[in-house]
Amino acid sequence: MAASSLELEMVGAGVAPVGSRPRPLLLLGPPASGRSALLFGAALAGASVVPSARVLFLAPRPLERLPGGKTAGGGGGAIQKIHFLYPSSFQELLQLLASLHHTLPNSPSMIALDGLEEYLNGCSSAYTAAQLVALLLDTSNHFAQKRHLSVGCQLIVSMKFLGEAGEEAEFFSAIERYFPTKLWLHPETGKDGGLKNQNLTRLIRAQLFRPGTKDQEWMVKFDAQGSMTVFLLPCKNEPENETVSENRPPDSEVGSTQT
């Protein structure tokens, strides 16, 4: 299945000029907002961009189900270009990142980390959390230089975030400056977002904030089998003097879609 416009935007293939490097992206949302599914979809898209693409996918544990209801052991094509590693703790992740430049057989063009909040639970302070993210960025930059790629090595990280009152708020304030691009996920509870409700299980509104560009929104539909369908939402009219995105989720609601 071809990558959606959302997944292409996540890996930087949708808007990045030739020769430019995509900015690190932080994928944020509450539980059951489809973070892992979207991150894996972006990993598949990243593995498909060019023949030489390789993706490193890091997570605290193996994925039980992939988008579309497939098992993590199945697949073909692009999934064969994704290398899965499962450091189970903060310390294991640190040790892995410190040794990747020696142990990884192929330099990746993308690093995807799922469940950052689980690793941050092992941090003693916000400063330690910032050090972990800085190490992730250093690892990404190392592989970009090793591959001699003008497009670099993209870094996409997913994190559970419940808002300013959540337990992750302290860590978020310490690490958000490392991620100029953010994708916020908002479950549309009790709404169909303008779509025909045909055995839907979840509707998620995805809002992408990238400095220097117009904000973009999608509606993501997950059916009972876990299959994902993405609908691009119409661009909102913006005043000419409106400032660029501040990387915060707006309070406005979405009531229509565009296929």
From TrEMBL:
<dbReference type="GO" id="GO:0097196">
    <property type="term" value="C:Shu complex"/>
</dbReference>
<dbReference type="GO" id="GO:0003697">
    <property type="term" value="F:single-stranded DNA binding"/>
</dbReference>
<feature type="region of interest" description="Disordered">
    <location>
        <begin position="237"/>
        <end position="259"/>
    </location>
</feature>
<dbReference type="GO" id="GO:0000724">
    <property type="term" value="P:double-strand break repair via homologous recombination"/>
</dbReference>
<protein>
    <submittedName>
        <fullName>ATPase SWSAP1</fullName>
    </submittedName>
</protein>
